Amino acid sequence: MLISLSWRNIWRNKTRSMIVVAAIAVGLFGGVMAVGILNGWINQRVHDSIYNEIAHVQIHNPEYLLNEETNLYINNTNEILAVTDTMKDVKGVSARIRLFCMAQSDRATTGMVVMGINPTEEEKVSQIYRKIIAGEYVDTTHQIPSIVIGSKAAEVLKLINYRITTEKMDTLLEQKLPEQIVDSVKLLIDKSYRKKSALLKDIKSILSKSNFQKYADRLASVFSEYRLNKSLVLTIQSSNGELHYQLFKVRGIYQTSNSQFDAANAFVDRSVLAKMAGLKPNQVHQVAIICNDMDKAQSVSNELAKLFPTVSVRSWKQTSPEIALYAQFGDFMGLIYVVIILFALAFGIINTMMMSVLERIKELGMLMAIGMNKVKVFIMIMLESVMLSLTGGVVGMGLSAVILAILGHTGIDFSAWSEGFAALGFSSVVYPSIGIIDYIEITVLVVLTGIISSLWPARRALKLNPIEALREE
Fold first, then answer.
1. Chain-wide mean pLDDT for the chain?
2. Lowest mean pLDDT among 25-39, 151-165, 344-358, 457-471
3. Environment class of 462 (CB within 10 Å of its CB; exposed 0-12, middle 13-18, buried 19+)
4. Beta-carbon contacts of residue 64 (< 8 Å; ≥ 6 apart)
5. Would you give the distance in Å from CA 342 to the centre of its chain?
């Protein structure tokens, strides 16, 4: 009876109730969308970190973690690989040589980390081979060994030229740049540049200041051409402390969502790097492991640590604690957004319920006079508040669920800020996602908001004197 009565009371003043429901729906829609986008970014960052950078589990010589020198390799690599091959929770294993080097092109020099890999093994652990944007992945068949570097490293080493062609104008149209921008840039067709600064100088001369700031980096990206098959000389310190040099050909360029990683990491054939460093085939600095499930990483790490106490075995949470913190921080921040929104909406609910109580003083006095006790009056007003909150909550969450389902497939493109996102390791295209647990938590928060919002109006109703209330006009 109380539930039915409370529901009818809500809709006595339809306009006022609809305004509150709409406010709650819009507020929760914004909150749920914020949670979804935040979850999408966090999930992408964690996924890319694991499958491009750190893997689920890493094994090292303990001393290598303190001082990353060439001679601090793993002594029992073959034994470790024999065990990991039999573990049911292990999906892929890659033994890597990891060295610091100096890389020199014909135009520039930079320091980076060079990873010696077996391409077949590495494809089971890392998705770098899927990130190739020019050329090919590490190839072991060439007489002059191949090296694959990141797009940012190619920029630092000046292995990029810039050329404006008709074909690239078509690319601009495919990317849906404004026709006004494309028409302006057509004035530069058939021009070539060795430096990005020279290209940007000409683009700046033909675009307005606002358009230049908005589109300059995207235009430079489209007009860039990588100088593949150019020579790159790597200098490393071998296991005996001597400097060794090796000529490589840049046969592949990769690009991940993390420009800092792209600037600092290169990949070559492990056998070539082992020979260069004076290491035997089974002497590696890192064994990277991918598990069948992210949650299995810790158990695999613990098991290997017991079997091989002389090496350092770390799960991804230990290797990169900031990534684990991202995941926890994302859930916490998502709830904070929703709490702030509901806190603001609570004042609207309180106002609506207070007006509802004040309009029904005589009616409430009559209900008390005929026997409805104060507990039932309190429950009735609380139910009205909760139902009002839930109605708006259901509408808001339902709308956001539909939008998130669509955007989860299409993604949200933030390419205008891609350079800034890449510097932080985040993709410029985010695929929002939200789980059932998130919806349950938000529903609980909505109910709590309704209950808390009912306390003041209910307290006002409980203070009524039935006789005085019946005299109210």
1. 84
2. 457-471
3. middle
4. 72, 73, 285, 312
5. 26
Rg (CA), the chain: 31
Q: Using DSSP bridges, classify how beta strands 109-117 and 265-269 pair: parallel, antiparallel or unpaired.
A: parallel
Q: What are the structural domain ranges in the chain?
A: 2-48+323-470, 62-158+228-310, 160-226
The span from the CA of 38 to the CA of 451, in Å, is: 28
Residue 66: helix, strand or coil by DSSP?
Answer: helix
Half-sphere exposure of 223 (CA within 13 A, CB side): 31
pLDDT above 50: residue 45 = yes
Position 136, amino acid? E
Is 267 in contact with 128 (CB distance < 8 Å)?
A: yes
Question: Helices (DSSP H) in 49-76: which residue ranges?
Answer: 62-66
d(CA 322, CA 317): 8
Out of 253-262, 322-331, 349-358, 367-376, least confident range:
367-376
Mean pLDDT of 297-324: 91
User: In whole angstroms, how far apart are CA 205 and each of 187, 192, 200, 277?
Assistant: 11, 16, 9, 50
Between CA 450 and CA 390 the distance in angstroms is 8
How far, in Å, CA of 471 to CA of 453, rounded? Answer: 28
Both tokens assigned to 91 = 């999906």
- Percent of all residues in the chain with a pLDDT value above 70, rounded to a whole number: 87
Strands annotated E in 396-451 = 412-413, 429-430
Residue length, the chain? 473
Q: Which two tokens stand for residue 13?
A: 């003043």
- Per-residue model confidence (pLDDT) at position 346: 79
First to last CA, the chain: 27
Enter the pTM of the model: 0.79
pLDDT attached to residue 295: 84
Which token pair is 196? Answer: 């990005």
Q: Which residue type occupies 242?
A: E
- Give the Cα separation of 445 and 450 in Å (integer): 9
- Please, are residues 253 and 134 in contact by the beta-carbon 8 Å criterion? yes
Residue 58, phi-psi category: left (phi > 0), alpha (psi -120 to 50), beta (remainder):
beta
Distance CA 170, CA 175 (A): 9
Tokens representing residue 9 in the block? 């009371």
- CB distance 162 to 226 below 8 Å: no
pLDDT at res. 17: 74
Angstrom CA distances, 397 to 29, 35, 346, 386, 393, stand at 6, 12, 17, 16, 6
The burial class, CB within 10 Å (0-12 / 13-18 / 19+), for 35 is: buried
